[in-house]
Amino acid sequence: MSTMNLTLLTDFYELTMMQGYFKNNKTETVIFDAFYRTNPSGNGYAITAGLDQVIDYIKNLRFVTEDIAYLRSLSIFDEDFLAYLKDFRFSGDIYAIPEGTVVFPREPLIKVIAPIIEAQLVETAILTIINHQSLIATKAARVVYAAKGDGVMEFGLRRAQGPDAGIYGARAAVIGGCIGTSNVLAGQLFDVPVLGTHAHSWIMSFSDEYSAFQKYAKLYPDKCILLVDTYDTLKSGVPNAIKIFDEMKANHIPMPYYGIRMDSGDLAYLSKKARKMLDDAGYYDAVIAASSDLDEYLIDSLKTQRAAISSWGVGTNLITSKDCPAFGGVYKLAAIMNENQEFIPKIKLSENTEKITNPGNKTIYRIYEKDTGKIKADLISLVGESFSEDEDLMIFDPIETWKKTKLKAGTYTLREILEPVFKSGECIYKTPKVMEIRNYCAQELDTLWDETKRLINPHNVYVDLSDQLYQMKAELLDKMSLTE
Ligand SMILES: Nc1ncnc2c1ncn2[C@@H]1O[C@H](COP(=O)(O)OP(=O)(O)OP(=O)(O)O)[C@@H](O)[C@H]1O
Ligand SMILES: O=P(O)(O)OC[C@H]1O[C@H](OP(=O)(O)OP(=O)(O)O)[C@H](O)[C@@H]1O
Ligand SMILES: O=C(O)c1cccnc1
């Protein structure tokens, strides 16, 4: 997919504005921040994902002959602008928070520094990519959290909102913690495990359930998960599965991974009964997998009900993030460079304090508690400000400014989480493999307290502004109100 040209994957207005910037000789370098305002699904954090696809998109940005011809056919773009587009390349800098990182509202996930005409074009594609994958990665992290260490398989392709959502959703789901996916193309593209059992049609295609199980076990003895709910889970499915396991045992066939899957009915009741039947037959290590419209809340409830399930297949609710279908990331202008090569901060006002943007050329420091390695807060600062772990650090809530905390020198550590990705149009970032991102994401989740990870009413991590950034914002707001 890396050679795919998505240059026209943009909103029409980006192109009409680009022509406007071109005609008005607006060549100044600007800074845009991509950030979001609210965690999806009422979560206490989000997981970033999609950067690798943004990188591919930027690398392949070029208006090919067919693109120019199409734009010409719209009868709105002049020849001088179309000629400019022919040689268009992204020439700017991009900074981003690496995929799989735990992030919080209002933090720039991606920062674009480029001539305005270039920075404007990339808005839509960056948002569609990052919004989708971050949404699904976050949802997956919730589902995996609910599963408390059990494996969660991503099964959603057939109910995803189309092929792209299925493919990149599977990628994001693995980043968020799924152990693999049923999506074979995602497996090939991203080198992630492909997993699966079999469908009811397999059972129904044979004259009886027992024969269907027997044929499946013969073909796949080392990954033998039998679907037991086609006819009657406890009266037929589980007893037939046990018969098959007995035969395999009698024939000394190794059974490294075997068990059953149930896909309907009361999963707590049925799994407990099935567990007892399997244990009574000596199959203590038989896996009980479950699927059936699951989500994080149902898995959590089934855990509370002590369901004897140790493997989870989750489709529709995960791949579509059904309870929260949009991530809500936005892309806002933060600064414009003047003739003296200085960034002049820009701010977007709103009636809603939370919606007022953070101006200037910013970066983000993550503050960890030294003893525990857990996140204490994040600090959005201006580029060039320096902080020392050997000095006390006063942080305060940017909205309720009286909420202050003084971090004592030596009790905290700092990590800058925005990393350089493009420098003068050249990619200088190497994306780790998806399974490496998944491991990194698991470590990231370990830096959160359980209070932030709980599914309902989580504790919000503080995202504070540095003193300098706060002052700059306050001054801009003051100026704005004076000019009104
Ligand atoms: N013990 C349980 N506690 C809470 N929810 C459960 C429990 N067992 C199953 N569920 C959920 O209840 C919903 C309905 O499940 P059920 O299998 O009875 O209906 P169904 O999927 O429509 O059945 P079928 O597949 O036979 O048409 C599913 O979302 C399932 O995950
Ligand atoms: O329930 P979800 O979370 O979306 O998980 C995926 C579902 O897809 C399959 O059902 P489907 O009825 O499509 O096929 P089947 O005949 O194999 O059960 C599978 O059995 C799961 O129930
Ligand atoms: O392999 C499975 O069991 C599977 C795959 C996709 C959807 N439902 C189930």
From TrEMBL:
<dbReference type="GO" id="GO:0004516">
    <property type="term" value="F:nicotinate phosphoribosyltransferase activity"/>
</dbReference>
<keyword id="KW-0662">Pyridine nucleotide biosynthesis</keyword>
<protein>
    <recommendedName>
        <fullName>Nicotinate phosphoribosyltransferase</fullName>
        <ecNumber>6.3.4.21</ecNumber>
    </recommendedName>
</protein>
<feature type="domain" description="Nicotinate phosphoribosyltransferase C-terminal">
    <location>
        <begin position="361"/>
        <end position="473"/>
    </location>
</feature>
<dbReference type="InterPro" id="IPR013785">
    <property type="entry name" value="Aldolase_TIM"/>
</dbReference>
<dbReference type="InterPro" id="IPR041525">
    <property type="entry name" value="N/Namide_PRibTrfase"/>
</dbReference>
<keyword id="KW-0328">Glycosyltransferase</keyword>
<comment type="function">
    <text>Catalyzes the first step in the biosynthesis of NAD from nicotinic acid, the ATP-dependent synthesis of beta-nicotinate D-ribonucleotide from nicotinate and 5-phospho-D-ribose 1-phosphate.</text>
</comment>
<keyword id="KW-0597">Phosphoprotein</keyword>
<dbReference type="InterPro" id="IPR006405">
    <property type="entry name" value="Nic_PRibTrfase_pncB"/>
</dbReference>
<dbReference type="InterPro" id="IPR041619">
    <property type="entry name" value="NAPRTase_C"/>
</dbReference>
<dbReference type="GO" id="GO:0034355">
    <property type="term" value="P:NAD+ biosynthetic process via the salvage pathway"/>
</dbReference>
<dbReference type="Pfam" id="PF17767">
    <property type="entry name" value="NAPRTase_N"/>
</dbReference>
<comment type="similarity">
    <text>Belongs to the NAPRTase family.</text>
</comment>
<dbReference type="InterPro" id="IPR007229">
    <property type="entry name" value="Nic_PRibTrfase-Fam"/>
</dbReference>
<dbReference type="Pfam" id="PF17956">
    <property type="entry name" value="NAPRTase_C"/>
</dbReference>
<dbReference type="InterPro" id="IPR036068">
    <property type="entry name" value="Nicotinate_pribotase-like_C"/>
</dbReference>
<dbReference type="GO" id="GO:0047280">
    <property type="term" value="F:nicotinamide phosphoribosyltransferase activity"/>
</dbReference>
<keyword id="KW-0808">Transferase</keyword>
<dbReference type="GO" id="GO:0005829">
    <property type="term" value="C:cytosol"/>
</dbReference>
<keyword id="KW-0436">Ligase</keyword>
<dbReference type="Pfam" id="PF04095">
    <property type="entry name" value="NAPRTase"/>
</dbReference>
<comment type="pathway">
    <text>Cofactor biosynthesis; NAD(+) biosynthesis; nicotinate D-ribonucleotide from nicotinate: step 1/1.</text>
</comment>
<feature type="domain" description="Nicotinate/nicotinamide phosphoribosyltransferase">
    <location>
        <begin position="152"/>
        <end position="321"/>
    </location>
</feature>
<dbReference type="InterPro" id="IPR040727">
    <property type="entry name" value="NAPRTase_N"/>
</dbReference>
<feature type="domain" description="Nicotinate phosphoribosyltransferase N-terminal">
    <location>
        <begin position="8"/>
        <end position="131"/>
    </location>
</feature>
